[in-house]
Amino acid sequence: MKFNPLMMCALFAVALAGCGGDSRNLDTSTAPPVVQRMVAGGAPHTAQGDSPAATVFSIAGYRDNYTVVKNQETNVVTVTSSIDHSVTTYRNPGLIKFADKWTSFDIDGATGQVYRLYQAAFNRQPDLAGLGFWIAVNQAGRDLNGIATDFVASAEFKTLYGDNPANAKLVNAFYNNVLHRDGEKAGVDWWVDQMNHGAAAFAVLYSFSDSGENKTNLAAAVQNGLDFVPYNQGGPIVPKRSSYENKVAAASVLGAQPLPPEVAAGNAVAFADFFQDGSYSMVTHTLEYIPDWSMTEFGHIRFYQRDKSGLWIDRTAVLLKDTQGCLHPRKAVVADFNGDGKPDVFFACHGFDRSPFPGEQPHILLSQADGTYQNKTLPVTCFCHAATAMDARGDGFADIVVTDNMVHATPFFLVNNRDGSFSVDTARLPPELKYKAIFSIEAIDFDQRGAYDIWIGGNEPGATAGETTTDYDTVPRILKNDGKGNYPVELARDLTPIPDYGLPLDIVFASGKIYLLRTNIGGGPNNYGLSFYTTTAVQVIDYQTGASTMPYTHKGAYGNGMFWVNWLVPTNGKVVSMESAYGITLP
């Protein structure tokens, strides 16, 4: 942005009524920049100099699974999938909507202006969620002057430029942070003089951000489109990267609620936007066999949708033709297993619950292009008492981790092959877990470092009647991710066991505290001899200090006839039982 009075006059006209004369009396607030707003939703986008109008396209996949290249001469955009290597071309698209991010080609319009303003204000590439937010703010009616004012008032801006910098200091900082060079003396003097005569910091910031020099500097970064995470765009709810995060997201909306009777009996329940209407719906799996003798009465899968009064209505027929599931389901987990931005479901099942504990093949529901689900039986046999899912690669193809103390005799990964199939991997978890009585598992990023750790729980020392400890017992444990997707035992962190309630069933991590939902399995100093699964307790562990308390215990039947609780969820700053009939609420 080499100093040129005529160029500066034209540039600064967005903030000042004119150059020349006495600018000390000019009110910059009455001369806002010419503002464009990006067209939202499915309306057409008109690219500069092109007719007819370009269109908005949607791709059922995640942005990071595609390369996007725009031919600067023809305006043809080529999108190549890294999954199946398919190639699609679009002539002059205005916007491409991927499942998780949108890519805008409105470089010279409002989207580009917001991007450049963001970059200029904070001397960094805009984070995608933040950019999406400010694009939405612009669409809602706040012009670029207003957004620039908001940026100047922000804590990040003040940290970068100072709380109330002198005009000369601010102008020099704009040269360095926006244009990444020292300002020539004539240019610096001119801008300082404008500010000394009333030009506001927000107007100068905008002028630097939208200057020809800054556009040239950023051209390479934006030539293939601008990615952003749309803010509050409505439409379907995109699955999060882990089944635990999906559980938490649903709970934040739904809270505790009355659930169908099959949830208490069979445990398997999960929530996601299965009907793709922007709201949470429910999937369950019934338990229909009699564990004492029957090995053929398989359960069935059901989908529910809420009506206007909040009641759950069975609408299975809309989504699923083949409803037969497992013999003995234990847990349902939601993640995206086929990379299309829609929720899928894995059912952890363990089969006949008597000796010889043969296990069974789990089921998975995969979303289809027509909005229905395919019910697949995976060709692996396990005594899968629990499962968790996590998209460690961030590509929309989540892996699954299951417990299996009978068939494989160890927890193991089902690695997503990205074609609807999974491969067994028993090597990623420590060999010390072999033959342990592990029945509960969850993947949680405890330290917010972008790497999922794995919590496991099972029969604890002294928790089983007639035993002090055995080689099969295990304390609850967090298997720390080494950053490469492995979980070496030397990084593991043990948590406090509670023999009286010696089987942890579920975990919630909220506000720096670990909540473990527990029941008894016949042992312990105070519950010795009680029948299995006849009590409930919640243990709270401070994640930093390890300090443990037991704020909730219960013996006897609840109002629904059950003696133990299957799931906890966090909602509205509390941790509650998913089923409202149990009435558990903890701070």
From TrEMBL:
This is DUF4214 domain-containing protein. PANTHER family: MAM DOMAIN-CONTAINING PROTEIN, SENSOR KINASE-RELATED. InterPro entries: DUF4214, Integrin_alpha_N. It comes from Duganella alba. Residues 1-17 form the signal peptide. Pfam families: DUF4214. It comes from the Bacteria. Residues 148-217 form the DUF4214 domain. Keywords: Signal.
